[in-house]
Specification:
The chain has about 180 residues and is α+β, with helices and mostly antiparallel strands. Helices cover about 35% and strands about 30% of the residues.
Length: about 180
């Protein structure tokens, strides 16, 4: 890590903090703010997250600053921090492109496998449709990322294509999203 990049371990020294808690503690979405730059950067660069990105590499703080600022400044994106009792536990990004919104979610591993991803994805889809109307929400998932494929499938997404090692899944604009629970 360079001196300009915070060490993810310094921000999230022990991911077991979530696994030691009661499974009833529910992660929630909140809109990201400027002071979340370091937390989102650290989450994005955790090895457990990097391995599931299309680039397969860590991003630099300079790259992250540009991306993060674009997410906060544009009417065509929504960035959420995922928190458990005020502690960062992931991030969720929506990018509006034409008649679609591309969704990405990073959820720390101790919270996976409990239905949280599915619920957070559905909540984000509701938010996307409130902002941009009856759009199609699209996810791009690495073909070997079984947990994400399962979470998006459980949230109502269907596989619509394959671009090499990336599977494209969509939640059609016509799908009704009621309660995300």
């Amino acid at each position: 890590m360079s001196k300009t990049q915070p060490d993810p371990a310094a921000i999230f020294p022990d991911n077991s903090t979530f696994s030691a808690r009661s499974p009833d503690e529910t992660p929630y979405l909140r809109p990201a703010e400027a002071n979340d730059l370091g937390s989102v950067f650290a989450i994005r660069n955790l090895l457990e997250i990097v391995r599931w990105t299309e680039s397969g590499r860590e991003v630099t703080m300079d790259e992250h600053r540009v991306w993060f600022a674009s997410r906060l400044a544009k009417d065509t994106s929504r960035l959420f921090l995922i928190e458990v009792e005020g502690t960062p536990a992931g991030a969720l990004d929506l990018a509006h492109r034409g008649d679609e919104a591309v969704i990405s979610i990073y959820l720390l591993s101790p919270l996976r496998g409990r239905g949280h991803g599915r619920r957070l994805i559905r909540e984000a889809c509701v938010a996307a449709r409130e902002c941009w109307g009856p759009i199609t929400v699209v996810a791009r998932i690495l073909s070997d990322n079984a947990p994400s494929l399962h979470a998006f499938g459980a949230a109502g997404f269907i596989e619509t294509g394959n671009e090499g090692r990336v599977i494209v899944m969509k939640l059609p604009g016509s799908v009704k999203l009621g309660s995300a629970r």
